[in-house]
Design brief:
heterodimer, A: 0% strand, elongated, B: alpha+beta, five-stranded mixed barrel, 2 helices, globular
């Protein structure tokens, strides 16, 4: 525990919830495994969506493929958020000050903003398209940003242990 | 499609350096130390159990293994409880002052591997 962190993170780490996570033999490792398994599903679903937005898998209907992949991505994102909260709580004060974690949190926010912009600005145009039709530039931009951001999030996550 | 594959490969290459093993980079394996003495404090907690040990000249913080691994090897919470005499062989931290990471510990004549 470090007192240099904002009080809210110190309090979270000192909570009985966080103590229970640290003291359980299986809870922390289980959350760790759940986080990685959710990540693999998320990465797979996001890759399918991004490749489609970039013009790959052109024979498929964008609306059908994206809707299917999106349900996997949302479920996996919920899994990562829940397991991530468990992992974060156990070491909240250190993680709040960890530069790799700070960058990761910023990138997660950027990734979600990218999703929101896509949903408002590009989704309708994309899901009207027939199989084989070329993608609008705004869809390609969203796809490239998504790939870059989420891969960087994963890299930052693994880097937390080294900073 | 080809462009997507190239893009994915480029991202994989750019980020692969970050996927190193969760190693011992911040511990100096060329200067192993053995700290022997009574355990002053003990935290049998995730992600790594830690104890503080009163050595000859100073109090060391000794980072051990995850509690699940320690338990399965017999190094339970009782083995590393406050007051036990421990001998810890490991490597000093290059970042944290007076901290070391144990390769193995010996308590009551029994040695437990931490890796």
């Amino acid at each position: 525990m470090t007192d240099a962190a904002p009080a809210v993170f110190v309090a979270l780490e000192q909570s009985s919830f966080a103590a229970a996570i640290r003291q359980s033999l299986w809870l922390y490792p289980a959350a760790n495994i759940g986080h990685i398994v959710s990540l693999t599903f998320f990465a797979g679903a996001v890759a399918v969506m991004d490749v489609r937005l970039l013009g790959g898998l052109a024979a498929t209907s964008p609306a059908c493929l994206l809707a299917r992949a999106r349900s996997f991505a949302v479920a996996a994102l919920v899994g990562m958020a829940l397991t991530g909260c468990v992992l974060f709580s156990a070491e909240a004060s250190h993680l709040a000050l960890n530069p790799a974690f700070q960058l990761k949190a910023t990138l997660v926010a950027a990734g979600l903003i990218n999703v929101a912009i896509y949903e408002v600005w590009a989704k309708r145009a994309v899901e009207r398209l027939a199989p084989g039709a070329s993608m609008p530039a705004r869809a390609k931009v969203a796809g490239v940003l998504s790939l870059g951001i989420w891969v960087a999030v994963a890299a930052c996550g693994r880097s937390i242990a080294y900073f | 499609m080809m462009r997507s594959v190239i893009l994915l490969s480029a991202f994989a290459l750019l980020t692969s350096a970050a996927f190193a093993h969760h190693g011992w980079g911040s511990y100096d394996a060329s200067k192993p130390v053995t700290v022997a003495g009574p355990i002053m404090t003990s935290k049998f907690e995730n992600p790594h159990a830690t104890i503080t040990v009163r050595g000859n000249d100073k109090v060391w913080t000794v980072t051990l293994a995850p509690p699940s691994r320690m338990s399965s090897r017999g190094a339970t919470e009782k083995v590393v409880a406050v007051g036990q005499n421990v001998s810890a062989y490991g490597y000093p931290s290059t970042v944290e002052k007076d901290e070391m990471r144990a390769e193995r510990i010996t308590v009551n004549g029994k040695t437990y591997e931490m890796r």
